[in-house]
Write a structure and sequence with these properties.
The protein contains twelve helices and 21 strands.
Length: about 425
Amino acid sequence: MAIWDPRHETMDRERLEEVQLARLRGMLARVHRRVPFYRDLLDGVGFEPGDLASLDDLGRLPFTDKGDFRDGYPFGLFAVPLSEVVEIHSSSGTTGKAVVGGYTRRDLHTWGELVCRLAVAAGVHEGDVAQIAFGYGMFTGGFGLHYGLQRAGVAVVPMSAGNTARQIKLMQDFGSTVLVATPSYALYLGEVIRRREVDPASLRLRLGLFGAETCSEELRAEIEARLSIVATDNYGLTELCGPGVAGECECRDGMHISEDHFIAECLDPATGEPVPDGQVGELVITATTRECSPVLRYRTRDLTTLTRAPCACGRTTARMGKVVGRTDDMFIVSGVNVFPSHVESVLFRIEGVEPFYQIVLERSPTGMDTFEVQVEVTDGLFNGWMDDLRAFERRVAEELRSALLVRPRVRLVEPGGLGRGEGKVRRVIDRRPG
Ligand code: DLL
């Protein structure tokens, strides 16, 4: 199994922590000097950058969150003048002002290296043809994978998102071996390939580099079967550079975090105290090496686990588990906490259910919350007897109730009845007031 940057990816922990400490010191001094927001933040807790004696001191420093990025919109958190910035990306900002991240020339170089690490870890090698079906544009996915895959020395096909017919044609004509996409778009591609009776084995696809949204093991298996590939997961966010924070190796036993650039903490979201390895908590990340957009203790709101146990691939970096949900996508119905990922895992285990679903939350005129799960079912089932359909609906509702401890209303939808997206899919539609 190839390792792109063995010097950094297989460092022993003692050496890694020395590197982390030195980089953290440098970063704190820089942001204190250059970014008024960070100066106020650190002064507010009486912390001088020179006070940092060990990595444990990180736990004494304040957090940052999305609100800080929004308040600083657009360039308030930049640590370099605009004259040194060569690229700017931004999240979609559907729920308020967008998050903006800038890159100096060196940041772009680092970004390419980090994405290259995860691509090589996933099994990409020279001779591959990588078709990028992430959107190019303000979203970090397209460009991030583009830079990283070029660094890995593969032929990049910058197809961008959408235009599914052309995606399939290019896959056939160019013999694409690697597909880069969101898992939901990969699933959709698989559906169209099946519908058009293209034999997936006639394509040369062998590997998927998926990320940007949650993908349960059940969904992964479904995509792998539909496209005849091995699917890997990688993680990142606009606030921290985009993709390149963490990615799975061929062992697929957690995503290796590039800890020489990102210090990861897993904390109890309520208390902010660390949780033991293996226990679910909120991922908090400090990006120490970014010149334009360094970030201190960023609360990602992503819930996951960390492990520092050795990995068979030889990398020594900590690994994060699958993102099981976000502190803000968990919803509460009838007093019960529900994560969409949990709903997904239950649904995908039921024979006859297609892997497309949506959760709709509403409030009735009497003030009661309603929780509806709309899910597509196979053709055979949908066009069968009404009684069978009703019985199936009850079964799905019962399976969900026993796993979630709250019973949703289930609405079965014909195959293809729910919308398909090209980018990130929206699973939960919450129409409740407030
Ligand atoms: O999604 C960056 C990215 C692009 C990562 C391409 C991987 C591949 P944002 O649009 O800012 O950035 O969204 C970040 O997406 O906080 C997670 O909630 C979610 N997310 C990203 N990767 C994963 C993943 C990009 N592998 C937000 N699994 C994050 C689950 C993910 N959720």
